[in-house]
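Trying the structure run again after the queue cleared.
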Amino acid sequence: MKTLYVIAASVVLAASSAAFADTSDNAGYAPRADIEDPAWVKQLDAEHEARMNERPAFGEMPEFADAPAFETPEWVKQLDAEREARMNEMPAFGEMPEFEAPDFKEMDESHAQFIKESDERRAASKKAFEERRAASKQRHEEFMKKFNKAGTEEAVEEAAVEKQS
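Done. Tokens:
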């Protein structure tokens, strides 16, 4: 059933497209024979055609035929010479100038020293943290002892006051 609807829709679309092409103003992009262009449109077309005929053909440029040859300014020549000199100073591709190879043993020792100092700083920091933590824990325990003691003394006093009343 669905296929039937699709076929019917495509037939209707094709028929309407053909009917539109036959009746539309630009059927096949040809001008309609029953409508004549106004005089002003014909005049514009003629002027355009005349201007197009006055232009030189592709590749023909008469204005530039007698032009003097372009000469590079001195400052551009100087910049080019400086760039060329710098390029000549550089080694060619694949050629490496002599250089000193780094001392890997010294680099390894330096790295080992850095790691050792880093570990020492980390251990000192951890030790200081643990000391602060222990001091904080001790202060908390002392506070809780005082708090519990104060709470019990006050509770005893309150109970004694209630008995007297």
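The helical segments are 2-23, 39-54, 74-89, 104-164. Worth checking whether this holds up in the mutant runs.
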